[in-house]
Amino acid sequence: MTKSRARVLALALVALALLNPVSAMGGKEEVPQKIKVVSQMFYDPVQQQYIKEQVLPKFKAETGIDVELQVVANASELYKTLQAQKETGKWTTDVLIAHDSAAVTAVKEYQAVQAYEKTPAGTYITQFDDNFVQGGKRYFVPLQADVYLTIANRKALPYLAKLGYDINKLTWAQMAEWVNLIKKETGSPRYVFPALAGKFATYEFNSVQLSYGAPYVPVFNTPAAMGAFKVIASMKEGILPSSPTIDFPTAALVTEDAWITVFHQAYANASFSQAPDKFVVAPVPIGGSGKRGTIIGGHGIGIVAGSSNKAAAAKFVEFFLRDDILYSVMRNTGPWIPSKAEVTSKLKDDPADSIMKMGLATLTGPTLIDRVRVAEFQDWGQVKKLYEEVIGDILAGKEMTQEYLDLKQADLEKLRIK
Amino acid sequence: MRALRRNGFRINPVWVLLPVVAYYAAFWIRPTFRVIQESFTDKAGQLTLGNYIRLLSEPEIRSAFMNTIIFTLGSALVQFVLAFALALWLNKKFKFSNLVLFIALIPMAFPPAAVGILWKTGLYRFGWINSFLSSVGLMDAANPVDWMSFRNLKAAMFLIIVDTWTVLPSVMIILLAGLQNFNKEYEEAGWVFGANKFQTLKDIVFPILRPTIVTAMILRIIAAIQVWLIAVMIFGYNVVPLLVERIAYNIDVITFGEFARKDAYTLSVIVVAIVVISVSFYLRFSGGKADDGGAA
Amino acid sequence: MSGLKGGLWSRSVFWLVLVTVCLMVLLPILYFLTISFASNYEAYQFPAKILPTLSYRAGIRYNADSDNYTLLLAKGADYEAVKTTSDRMDMSMYFKSQLNVILSESSVADLFSKARQTPGMMETRLRKNFFRNYVIFFILADGTMAALMNSLEAAGWTILISLILGGSTGYILARFRFRGRESFSATLLVVRMFPAVSLSLPLVIYIMKMNLYDTPLSLAIVYAVPNIALTAWITSSIFKGISVELEEAAMIFGATRLRMLMTITFPLAFPAIVASSLYAFLAAWNDSITALIMTNENPTLALLVYRTVGSSTIPNLPAAGAVVLLIPSLVFTFIIKDYIKQLWGGAKI
């Protein structure tokens, strides 16, 4: 290196070293009309892209208020954010979009959300009010609900036709037959059971367990639970062996590595929207109880108690819940089930609207449903791990015996909050 | 020297070290003490070995130990052999040696996060590794290998390859510096006396380069013990447990778990202990004094 | 030279090695760059392309019976139907989000009306917005620019702290013998190799008390711990190389030590100082675990990239993020390269 080059470089480095601290001390300018939304929803980049490019600019055009959207990956990241703000006393968040399973903690533990004085207009679903309404006061207004559903590549349909089953009335036992037939005829496993650590395996199992008549999940050693594990184990040959490294089924479905999955609707739909003509979507299969089963979840929107821009935050909530906005968000970032009767009553028949209706039918029909019971266990991550071990063991060929499942149940009981 | 001391500073120059000592007291010794203290106490602050006992009884931690050892030794060995061969080769100064050196150094610039993404994009079934293999006819495109389903030893091997890809240049450049520094005449004297290449290498090049090699390898080993990000980026948490990966897991995934904090503290102590032991090994083996300085 | 002089056999081995080494490095990078330019649709195509594409060979078919349009994309010699709709807005959104093709609703309407007049399938070429992924990366992470600034700021502080404290230590170690010097240097060696992760956890408590939580300065405090020691080591070896006589001569002519340092020692030690600040830069730039612990709303770029990977099921966006992260460290590494060789000359720690 020549000396002059070194000198220029050094100047740059010194400038870097000196200017940054100075600018940091200069303090940040206050922009009054800007709010920050922290959200557990819109985790996928495509969803975020839609909100940031289509929705937030519209809000800005109507009200002149800038919105910054920060998406958190999971509940513990949300709590970390809230904890830091609570401890330092500096609330930088104005609006919170939380999953129903995190709503109670956000209110009780972090006092992050304030109760609505007046509930925004509209007829909303009530499935999550046990969490969203506390002590008679409403803290969150539901935005959407989601259920599990079946998504299949059209290439898989001829095999189903061969068996003579109807995808809209499929049972789990038939699903197993279908998956195994495909494996037999194509030589490749085509069902993806995403089971990356800390993600969705638990809920995928839970949906099957509910449909087998388990009244409460998580559970391991009841006959219903066992029936569910056994039907998944019977599909073992047809399940993609890399499933435990997969977080969401999107990539596997779109590349056609996998043809079938039963998964959380938002993520199943991410693959669907990539090439809608290639896929069909159907409700979750029916289990041993003769009914469908699914975990349901939903997100709610609330105003942060410590916010210094409450008026702007309230405007944002009102905007976001408006029929046209809610519909376009639900349609383009999901499709999810919109929380508002005013929106669901106007759904049409195109593929995206059909998925919303299918979800609504599953949610409000005779389906056996349960919720994510994070609050009842010391460490939900450890609970998830138990289920992740089960799918690992199933893929490794382990028998789902009563003994094995009793051990798992004992581990589960240890995690329960007494 | 003595004259200088009297001339230049009015005070004892050692006082200049005071800010450094203060800095280290505040930001190194105090936190280190705190980590150790946390690891030996329970939540109520009572002295206990419970944290260590709990950790050692967890199968993940045991496999994290094993994986860390396999990864560290495996990568050190592979990297040493390849880096040494490459350095010997590039030291010959052939027509394109500078260009090759330039190219070979590129991976060194990759931050671990970028390395993780680069290889993850390759490991998907539809990723570039399979794409390349099938385009040159080494693999049936209809039946691609599912690299991501690799587990245990196979997955650890893959991490070694990925790690080697990115750190090989930094090992090589140290060895190359050693080779270039070392008097060429030694080697030529060897040839004259009829020694074959291997003997020259074994009897002359190795002994003289020994301190360089030990330095490069200890640096690698210490860095390898702390590898976690590439493992998490490629396979996700839990698939290839490593010691520091466990720390990150406790912090990032089960943040609010009952023992998450304690486990992270205790694992930190374990990692520090391993690193400090490695450093002292280095000091014994190299026989060098710590203060000798590089360009001496 | 022997590699070139040998016979055909050794020459072909030579070329084989040369090509293998270059391919091992360049091939992954080339594929990786291409993926960073791929649309969502392309990112999943197998086999992946080695060079980025600029446009798609596509077709639009009007389905008279259902009065809607099907978009088909070329796959090998065939076309694959990907999206059927009658809604222009819907199709325009699909182009944008899945194909990185920006077409307004009215351009889509034009395409539709042409397709309507064409019997069978109307062939067309759709031009890709080449840098779309990079644009999205910056849109998605509102914080990308802020994170970039945080990384730079953390690096700046790290350099500042390391140079002041490390440089002065290096000078003292090079010029003076004092009691405890040996053990002091041995301690520095241990610090240099100390895993930063073990410091971040307990430090975060103090950092919160100091009201520095979630700031780049707090990161720099941790990064500086090993880097002070590294800087001390690098600079001390350089100061040793600068002859004491020169300094003495200056001082005989009446210069104070400070003045002598500024006019003689410092310019001579300049390259080493640059080199050590580059090391400090890279340490700050590459870290993510400390940032994971010490920041919350103000992450560094490396942490941001780590997080977007977690939230993405598609390799293209993370790849674009990684390229953004990569460029500065690529530049710095190649500047530092010459110094590394100098520094490792005698290769002793």
Describe the structure.
- The complex is a heterotrimer of chains A (418), B (296) and C (349).
- Chain A has 418 residues and is of the alpha+beta class.
- Chain A folds into 2 domains: 161 residues, D-Maltodextrin-Binding Protein, domain 2 (3-Layer(aba) Sandwich); 196 residues, Periplasmic binding protein-like II (D-Maltodextrin-Binding Protein, domain 2).
- Chain A has 17 helices and 14 strands.
- In chain A, the strands form 4 sheets. In chain A, strands 1, 2, 3, 4, 7, 12 and 13 form a 7-stranded mixed β-sheet that branches.
- In chain A, a hairpin with a 2-residue loop joins strand 5 and strand 6.
- The longest helix of chain A has 23 residues.
- Chain A is globular.
- In chain B, 71% of the residues lie in helices and 0% in strands.
- Chain B is globular.
- Chain B starts with a helix and ends in a 10-residue tail after the last helix.
- Chain B has a single domain, classed as Orthogonal Bundle (MetI-like fold).
- By secondary structure, chain C is an alpha+beta fold.
- Chain C has 15 helices and 4 strands.
- Chain C has a 4-stranded antiparallel β-sheet with strand order 3-2-1-4.
- Classes of the chains: A alpha+beta (418), B mainly alpha (296), C alpha+beta (349).
- At the B-C interface, helix 1, helix 2, helix 5, helix 6 and helix 7 of B face helix 1, helix 2, helix 7, helix 8 and helix 9 of C.
Give the tags.
heterotrimer, B: 296 residues, mainly alpha, MetI-like fold, 13 helices, disordered C terminus, C: 349 residues, alpha+beta, 3 domains, four-stranded antiparallel β-sheet, 15 helices, 9% strand, elongated
